[in-house]
Each structure stands twice: as C-alpha cells, then as structure tokens.
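hey
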C-alpha cells in the first residue's frame, strides 16, 4: 500500500505544489471535481470487478485506488487544463487525447509490473476510454467554469 501512497499521492503532489504556485484558482476549482469523478469511476470498476489494484484487500478494495483518486488523477487533470490554458485553447482536444494516452500508458506499466490486474473482459483499450471520457468531462467543466466567471465579472462591472 505504501507504493500506492508514494506513486499515487505523494509524488504527484510534488508537481501539484509547483502548479499551486503557478495557478491557485485552477487547483482549487479542478481538484475537487476530479476527485469525485475519479472516485466514482474507481468505485464503479471495483463494484463490477473490472480491475484489482494491488495490494488485494479482503474488504475495502477501493482503498487501494484512493491515493490515485486524490493525487495522480487530479494533478494530471490540472496539468492538462494548465497546458490548455497556456496554449489558449488551441489543440485542446489533442491535449485531452494525449493525456488519456499517457495515463493509459502509466496504467499499462502497472499491469506489466503486476500492480493492476484486469478481469471480466476489461482491457487496455477500455482503460483508454475510461480516461478519455473523464478527461473530456474535466475539460467541459473547465469551459463551464470560465463562462460562469465571465458572467460574474460582467455583472460586477
């Protein structure tokens, strides 16, 4: 479990501290949303028994993914949105696709190192889409937040 905590939570938040210095609003607006999405996806996969993340626990298997739900996925999502912001929205969908591939590759490494095991016809292609859809939702959420912020600013002026 310490490997999960180190790779899934501590290491990503080292990058998260850098992102916090760069854009606090982005961290505070994106991270809670991603934590909820990541937790729901992992609970769904655990319930359907599509995958098991080591260590295998008798009860509370969802706990093995929690460091990733509160570290790895939120920080990668913030980094994705940060890059979209920096490119001023150009090639946004390509950035979403690239981050989906990178996250899928990271999970594939987990499969290779026997830290993740798939069941019930789950595979790496389904894994890609299980990242692509939430990353796309994060991007849509980011666009919605920007529209809401602009409406509030226009009302104040």
């Amino acid at each position: 479990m310490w490997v999960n905590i180190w790779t899934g939570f501590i290491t990503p938040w080292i990058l998260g501290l850098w992102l916090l210095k760069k854009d606090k609003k982005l961290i505070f607006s994106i991270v809670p949303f991603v934590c909820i999405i990541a937790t729901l996806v992992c609970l769904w996969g655990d319930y359907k028994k599509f995958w098991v993340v080591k260590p295998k626990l008798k009860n509370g298997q969802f706990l093995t993914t929690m460091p990733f739900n509160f570290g790895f996925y939120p920080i990668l999502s913030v980094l994705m949105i940060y890059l979209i912001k920096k490119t001023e929205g150009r090639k946004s969908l390509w950035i979403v696709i690239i981050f989906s591939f990178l996250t899928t590759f990271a999970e594939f490494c987990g499969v290779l190192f026997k830290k993740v095991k798939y069941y019930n016809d789950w595979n790496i292609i389904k894994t890609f889409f299980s990242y692509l859809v939430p990353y796309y939702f994060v991007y849509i959420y980011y666009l919605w937040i920007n529209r809401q912020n602009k409406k509030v600013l226009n009302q104040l002026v």
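The mean pLDDT is 93. Helices lie at 2-22, 24-47, 66-86, 92-112, 124-156.
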